[in-house]
Amino acid sequence: MPSCCALCGQDGQHVICGGCSKHYFASRPQRCVQCANPLPRSGGVGLLQCGNCLKQSRAFDATIVVCDYAAPVDQLIQALKFRSQLALAPVFAKMLRDAVLLQAAGKKAELPDILMAVPLSAQRLQQRGFNQAHEIAKPLARLIGIPLRRDLLLRQRDTLPQSMGLDLEQRRRNLRQAFAMAPAASAKIDGRHIGVVDDVMTTGETLHALAKTLRRHGARRITNFVFARTP
């Protein structure tokens, strides 16, 4: 079991101590319901969507996030993704579960019928040894009681990492035909609400490309569950 906080190093029995949880994860800014980008503080009362989502259509319907992708939270994601600190994945999942419950508080929110993780290419999966999104999705599926499927979409080619300083048009070109429906998977998503899990959302182009593929095969609604959002 972890013997110190992954953020501040304080001795304890929790992966993230109570002080760090309160300091870095308690804030719940008003966010765009579609892409979860923080909405402006002034004049943003009552807004549901950000300017980007109003100007350009998104293939997904909603996004739920835990926090912004900023220091020192970015260290946690890098530790999971690049240093194989898999003990962080269930912590991310619990925080996402709490964000889902908070979103549903006071209103009748529709949970997905099926949960899936953003797939990695075979080459990237072999290099890393695990899919960090799937490691988060496994405990999240148990916590919210939704079946998790690994056989819906395939990442049919290895794209450049979206974090490599690509501009918006380069990101879109990078993701063209990146995802394909797995054999016999269309019948499993037709008319269903699909939840898509990922660790970080930057511009949303990866999730948009994935959602477009799901839409083409009949998905009725798509909700993203993402740990951190780059503002």
From TrEMBL:
One of its GO terms (molecular function) is transferase activity. Keywords: Transferase. Belongs to the ComF/GntX family. This is Phosphoribosyl transferase domain protein. It comes from Collimonas pratensis. Residues 136-228 form the Phosphoribosyltransferase domain. InterPro entries: ComF/GntX_DNA_util-trans, PRTase-like, PRTase_dom. The keyword Transferase applies. SUPFAM superfamilies: PRTase-like. Pfam families: Pribosyltran (PF00156).
